[in-house]
Each structure stands twice: as structure tokens, then as C-alpha cells.
Amino acid sequence: MEVEIKLRLSDAAAHRRLSTFLKPQLRRTHIQRNLFFDAAARTLAAATAALRVRLYGPDDRAPVRAVLALKRRPRLDAGVSRVEEVEEPLDPALALACADDPARLGAVDSEIIRLVAAEYGVGGDAAPFVCLGGFRNTRSVFEHKDDSKGLGLVLELDETRFDFGTSYELECETAEPDKAKEVLERLLTDAGVPYEYSRSNKFGCFMAGKLLP
Fold first, then answer.
1. Does residue 186 sit in the same domain as residue 116?
2. Which segments of the chain have a pLDDT < 70?
3. Inter-CA distances, 37 with 54, 61, 99, 113, 180, Å
């Protein structure tokens, strides 16, 4: 179970302000391309599941890393996200081949692909994979320590570019969501950055074809 705090920022100005405030704690920046796969009948989406290939690197045709992930049964309440997630590394060249020929993903030697076939019947000849498309994301990763709560947190500041608009979000994976949310709220208040609890995830926005709160 992945547990994250998700706080939505109002606009690009808020994103820039927080990025500047956190700059001394910046550790790395990831350029991500996210692609989603399903059957033509959207079998996985109907079961609140998302199969994602994430490619890392600024060059679409030469990613430096790729990760296959299955996320299922998401719940998002008051800015706390809980979702069942499994991930596997994927050879970047194979990931590109599957992006070009989605049906090929069904033949990949992968526990995730076998799980999807067994539980959802997706990926074989009867329901081959299609690529739904996706979105791009720039993720800045910060290491933030809060002595008052005794927490060391890894913060992820996202700028997500959909075909229909751009969203901005601060995320933090944590085993102590109540404490972490309090730390993030105080941090944003100190930075003078307006925020709201996220009420939808990125995949939900992508599938809706519009920015959701």
C-alpha cells in the first residue's frame, strides 16, 4: 500500500514560489513521460486500476530508465492518498517498443503483466493492450527535515503537463500521514504558498480529459 500526502498548488506562480523556498533542499530533478495501457474496452480503468510505463529522461527516444507499475483501488481523502501499487524495472528499449506496438506488452516477462492477465483478462489475444496516451511530468525531489516532529521527509514537487492544461502538486510518501500532512501544511504556510487538498489523482485527470480539483 502506497500512502502519500497530495496537496494541490493553485498555479505556476505558487509552484515557482515553493520551488524557490525549497531550493536549498533540492536533491535531483526527474523528467518523466507517463504512458498508460489498457484493453480497448477500458477493462482496467473500469476496475479502478491503472497500468503505467514511466520513462525517465529528456529524450523521448533514448530514456535512461523505465518502470512498469500497476496501481489499484485508489482512495483519496483530505489530501491523504492510499493505493495498492506494485512496480518493476523495465528495459528502456523494450518500453519504447511497447509504446510503438502496445500489444507487445502482453508478451513481456513480468509478474505485473501476468497478474493483469490473470485477474483482469487483459493482455492476451482476446484483449490485447492498447496505449491510452499519457502526460509529462517534471518532478523536483527535496529532502526536508522537521525537528519538531522528528521526521525526515522526501518531498516531490510536480509540474504535470496534460494536453489540456498543467497542474501543480506537492507529494510526500510517508508511513505517518497525519504528522507528515501537518509538516507540509506548515511548510506551505511559511512559504506563503496557497494550497488545497488534492481530490483527484493524475490518472483521474488524464482519463477525464480536464483538470480536476
1. no
2. none
3. 11, 19, 9, 11, 32
What pLDDT is stored for residue 213 in this prediction? 85
Whether the CB-CB separation of 138 and 158 falls below 8 Å is answered with yes
pTM: 0.96
pLDDT digits (tens, 9 = 90+) for 124-172: 999 999 999 999 999 999 999 998 878 999 999 999 999 999 999 999 9
Report yes or no on 213 lying in a domain.
Answer: no
Range of the domain at 53: 34-134
Q: What is the count of structural domains for the chain?
A: 2
Residue showing cell 501544511: 185
Report the CATH number at residue 179.
2.40.320.10
DSSP letter for each residue of 134-174? EEEEEEEEEEEEETTTTEEEEEEEEEEEETTEEEEEEEEE-
Q: What is the pLDDT of residue 149?
A: 79
Residue 90, SS3? coil
